[in-house]
Amino acid sequence: SKYRVKTIRSGNMLEVEAYPLMAMPTGGKRGKRRKESSTAQQNLNDKNTIKRVTRIVHTNFTEKDIWATWTYANGKLPADHEQAKKDMQNFIRRLKRWLKKQKKYENFELKYVYVTEFDDGNDKKVRVHHHMITNFPDRDAAEELWNGGGRVQTRRLQPNDFGLEGLVRYVMKDKKKNPTKRYTISRNMKQPKVTIADSKMTRKRAERIAMEEVCAEELFEKMYQGYKFNDIEVKYSEFSSGVYLYVRMKRIDSLVKHKGRFDE
Questions:
Q1: Which mean pLDDT values do the consecutive 10-residue runs of the chain (264 residues) have?
Q2: What is the pLDDT of residue 262?
Q3: pTM
Q4: Which of 18, 129, 132, 254 is at 20 to 30 A from 209, Cα to Cα?
Q5: What are the φ and ψ backbone dihedral angles of 32, each rounded to 5 degrees?
Q6: 149-180 as b/e: b if 16+ CB within 10 A
Q7: Which residues, 6 or more positions from 191, have their beta carbon under 8 angstroms from its beta carbon?
Q8: What is the DSSP string of the chain?
Q9: Going by DSSP bridges, is the β-strand pair 257-258/224-225 parallel, antiparallel, or unpaired?
């Protein structure tokens, strides 16, 4: 009957996951888990990967940062994915060397996440290229330092009500159709802040939210002051009673007050 409320803060974005806690019988054995189909499991893995990368991006990047697409000229196309990876590693080294040579950036901490798309050799033909989100401070210098010879495009990040989730989904699109598509994240990334509470919501309150007997927008904006309600997703499980709630919100001011509790 207890509910767990998990709050994930990633930069200006906030997510709330509320779900029933499962009680294990004392001295009993776990029930046999049903083997999920490979397709269902892959879809779940892809969904969780996008969530994980989106949260890291929200935690580490703002409108001051950029995203870029790096391509190759015909004579410089990498022979395989390993060579494409080396190209990006060398490119990042050039970015870091450039920063050290600039007095105002000599202590600058470069952050990045990039995705490489490469022809998988099957029915999906992809000309190798890279998408990168980075805090590198000079767009012109970044474009000059890329030596792939192909078209280069850099743009400022433009978050919307859902932050940069749309951009992350775009650069990681069709991953299940192209297994050679991989992402790389710099090791110096800050992680989102996660808090867990087991006494903020009752089963009755969760059910009333799901049945729209309680206005979710008013309730969550009161609970998380300083954040604007975006949307809510309601799901039911075939394995347990109770409802699963997933809420997305965006910060609307710099001072976030987190107080109050969910009651009956």
A1: 91 95 53 62 82 96 96 91 92 97 94 86 69 97 93 94 94 60 89 94 91 94 95 85 93 56 40
A2: 41
A3: 0.85
A4: 254
A5: -70, 125
A6: ebebebeebebeeebbbebbeebbeebeebeb
A7: 56, 59
A8: -BEEEEEEEETTEEEEEEEEPPPPPTT--PPPPPPPPHHHHHHHHHHHHHHHHHHHHHHH--TTSEEEEEEE-GGG--SSHHHHHHHHHHHHHHHHHHHHHSGGGTT----EEEEEE---SSS-----EEEEEE--S-HHHHHHH--SEEEEEEEE---BTTBTHHHHHHHTTTGGG-TT-EEEE-TTPPPPEEEEESSS-BHHHHHHHHTTSS-HHHHHHHHEETEEEEEEEEEE-SSSSSEEEEEEEEE-SS--EE------
A9: antiparallel
| Dihedral sign computed on CA atoms, order 181, 151, 92, 87 | positive
- Residue 17, token pair as written in the block: 């996951």
Nearest alpha-carbon partner for 195 in 18, 69, 1, 27: 18
116 forms bridges with which residues in the sheet? 130, 182
User: 181: which 2 tokens?
Assistant: 């598509």
Looking up tokens 């009993």 gives: 28
Exposure letters 98-128 (e unless 16+ CB within 10 A, then b)? bbeeeeebeebebbbbbbbbbeeeeeeeeeb
Whole-angstrom distance, CA of residue 16 vs CA of residue 19: 10
Of the CA atoms within 13 Å of residue 249, those in its CB half-sphere come to: 27
**What token pair was written down for 188?**
């110096």
